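Renewal narrative, Specific Aim 1. Our central claim is that a sequence can be written position by position from structural information alone. The example that follows is taken directly from our test logs and has not been curated for this report. It begins with the structure tokens describing the chain, in the order in which they were read.
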């Protein structure tokens, strides 16, 4: 979840087109990630984000070895750790990272023909299923400041 400074969204998009996009394209090619999307829109208030980077991973277990798989890709595409730090500092002038989230897509089961009643007298129409779909991580492709490491993409 990224908030660009006023009037600098296009500049930020240009920056990540040359850095973040090639990293995700290579990770997708190597099947480290399933897909990614970069969404751009209007912030709903002065404290809201206007750019959202969604990354879809194959499953929860992918997070166990993610660092080991990402580090070589990031180094190949974005250069040395020093080069990545320079890019991250440059981006401070155009954007602020508001946060990250890891979420899971759920699929609702087909609604039952008749309602079921629970013990408390509440009526439940249909039910949610436990998802077998892969997790989707909403992330700015960068770890929090306190845990910056060589694999930081620094969106």
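The sequence written for that structure reads:
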């Amino acid at each position: 979840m990224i908030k660009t400074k006023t009037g600098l969204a296009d500049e930020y998009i240009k920056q990540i087109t040359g850095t973040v996009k090639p990293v995700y394209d290579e990770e997708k090619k190597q099947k480290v990630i399933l897909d990614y999307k970069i969404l751009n829109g209007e912030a709903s208030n002065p404290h809201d984000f206007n750019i959202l980077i969604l990354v879809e991973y194959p499953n929860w277990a992918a997070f166990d070895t993610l660092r080991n798989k990402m580090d070589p890709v990031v180094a190949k595409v974005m250069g040395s750790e020093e080069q990545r730090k320079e890019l991250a500092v440059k981006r401070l002038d155009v954007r602020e990272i508001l946060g990250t989230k890891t979420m899971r897509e759920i699929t609702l089961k087909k609604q039952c023909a008749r309602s079921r009643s629970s013990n408390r007298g509440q009526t439940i129409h249909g039910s949610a299923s436990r998802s077998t779909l892969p997790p989707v991580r909403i992330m700015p492709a960068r770890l929090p400041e306190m845990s910056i490491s060589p694999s930081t993409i620094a969106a």
